[in-house]
Design brief:
The structure holds two protein chains of two kinds.
Chain A (H helix, E strand, L loop, with lengths): L1 E5 L5 H16 L5 E8 L3 E2 L2 E10 L3 H16 L2 E9 L1 E3 L4 E9 L2 H18 L2 E7 L2 E4 L6
Parallel strand pairs in A: 1-5
Antiparallel strand pairs in A: 2-7, 3-4, 4-6, 4-8, 5-7, 8-9
Chain B lengths: L2 E6 L1 H7 L3 E5 L4 E2 H8 L9 E4 L2 E3 L4 E2 L4 E5 L6
Parallel strand pairs in B: 1-7
Antiparallel strand pairs in B: 1-2, 3-6, 4-5, 4-7
The chains are: A alpha+beta, B alpha+beta.
Chain lengths: ~140, ~80
């Protein structure tokens, strides 16, 4: 059960492999499926090329809301475990922004909870994207689905 | 001295030109009242507010020691 907000770039597949190594005994046997979502930075948005991005957040409130939505997901579905990892600070196109993983006995719970976590994160966790385009810096005013 | 901390993020922080204020309060003011003290315009539409790092509404009342925050719609993920 981990929530992490970090500036350092990460490789989601290495994070998952390392996590399963540590949590392996707890996950093995009980888990019948894992659903994973990886959000990655695009090099375009709203019809314009985007060359870089900075993610601002509200330290403290961000972690509290990630924990809140994770607790809600565990209450709603039978999950063995879940993981949320989110970048902040400067990012380049192609870099992973967010990793959400859910382990469950059955796939329905894993898929549904994973979807819930990323959707709720996007609407409730206090993060803000600022993009660098040819015409300068701009704040992203709303998320697309 | 009874103080509240007011924090600003993203485009609101840039518009105000600062990330934080500390205000004296007698307690019982609304979040909207706090906004009127720190800015010279109306609360921009779609602005989100938090009190003590929980979402709140502009009519929420604040007390000494509270942390109030103003920020635009969130765009993480």
């Amino acid at each position: 059960m981990t929530i992490r907000v970090q500036e350092a770039a990460f490789n989601p597949w290495e994070v998952l492999a390392a996590y399963e190594l540590v949590a392996g005994e707890r996950l093995a046997g009980q888990t019948g499926g894992a659903a994973v979502f990886v959000g990655t930075m695009r090099d375009f948005n709203q019809g314009q090329a985007v060359s870089a991005m900075t993610l601002e957040h509200y330290p403290g409130m961000t972690e509290a809301y990630l924990e809140k939505i994770r607790t809600e997901a565990h209450r709603r579905w039978e999950l063995v475990d879940s993981l949320i990892l989110h970048r902040v600070g400067p990012l380049k196109p192609g870099e992973p922004i967010v990793l959400v993983a859910c382990w469950a006995a059955h796939r329905d719970a894993a898929f549904a909870a994973c979807r819930y976590l990323i959707d709720e994160l996007k609407t409730r966790a206090p993060f803000w994207k600022q993009e660098q385009t040819d015409s300068g810096l701009r704040w992203v005013d709303q998320n697309q689905s | 001295m009874a103080l509240i901390t007011v924090r600003y993020f993203a485009s609101i922080r840039e518009k105000l030109g600062r990330s934080e204020d500390r205000l004296e309060t007698a307690g019982g003011e609304t979040v909207l009242g706090i906004w009127q003290r720190v800015s010279d315009g109306p609360l921009p539409p779609n602005t989100l507010v938090a009190v003590n790092q929980e979402y709140a509404t502009p009519d929420a009342r604040v007390q000494a020691g509270d942390e109030v925050a103003f920020f635009p719609p969130v765009t993480g993920g």
